[in-house]
Amino acid sequence: MGAFGCRGSNRYGGRLDFDEDKQVLRISATVGSCGVSASDVPYTITPIPGSNYEYWVQPDYSSTDFKVRLAACRDPSINADFFDSLHVKSNKGVLMSDITINGG
């Protein structure tokens, strides 16, 4: 399983864990004092044109309650749509743990 951490602060952070055998991921997010996660989330990944190392990861949360639980955190800085499209950026030869993920 590949794991990708994201840059955050003491109030915000997250992690994506990709399954090696099927195209699903586990997402964990910290929003203020609220923690939300979902497992077995299908996703699509699309290269960003003009870049060799940047991608859009678009999770399909329809089989989960991730967005409902995220909205229940009631943080004015983050809305539930923030996690619809994740910008994944890496450098050639970089370790998976050094890849950064930002909401789109």
From TrEMBL:
<protein>
    <submittedName>
        <fullName>Uncharacterized protein</fullName>
    </submittedName>
</protein>
